[in-house]
Amino acid sequence: MWGELIQEVRVAQTGVQILFGFLLTVVFTPRYAGLDDTEQAIYIVTVVLGACATGALIGPVSLHRLVSGRWVKPQAVRWASRLTFVGLILLLATMTAALLLILRVATHDGYVPYLVAGVVLWYLLCWFVLPLWTRRRYTSRSD
């Protein structure tokens, strides 16, 4: 289970690190000063969420390194799995906030919250609803 978890984390880590890297550069662009107070607040929240998501998704690597060889693999897998789940929730929040900010700046239209809500529903379906439905549907009672 540890190997599968680390492979899953690698995919999420790459995405969150790229997103976080881009977010860090925004404040240094000339356009940042032109953002209104609400957009700057959304940006700050997005960066903080991205930092937290990065920490949670890198956490399993650090956990593995620090407990390796200590005969606590079942506990390490449990904690790494929890960190990964929290990281996915934080990544969802980060992507939602980033999308909200980008669409607000790009369009200034009233339909932005509806677009963002639609994308969030899509993420929820892909990341949580479908996996949970599959687990419930195809897991036998004896498992």
Short description:
By secondary structure, the protein is an all-alpha fold. Helices cover 83% and strands 0% of the residues. The radius of gyration is 18 Å and the shape is flat.
Topology:
Layout: H1 2-26, H2 37-67, H3 73-107, H4 112-138
What does this protein look like?
- With about 140 residues, the protein is mostly helical.
- The protein is built from 4 helices and no strands.
- Helix 1 (about 1-25) runs antiparallel to helix 2 (about 35-65), helix 1 (about 1-25) runs parallel beside helix 3 and helix 3 runs antiparallel to helix 4.
- The longest helix is centred in the middle third of the chain and has 35 residues, at about 75-105.
- The model has no long low-confidence stretch (mean pLDDT about 90).
Outline: flat
Low-confidence regions: none
Taken in chain order, the helices and strands follow as HHHH
* Total number of helices: 4
Q: What is the chains' assembly state?
A: single chain
Percentage of residues assigned to helices: over 70%
Largest sheet: none
Whole-angstrom Rg: 18 Å
E-strand count: 0
Distance between the termini: 15 Å
Helix/sheet category: mainly alpha
Mean pLDDT: 92
Q: How much strand?
A: under 5%
List keywords for this structure.
single chain; 143 residues; mainly alpha; 4 helices; 83% helix
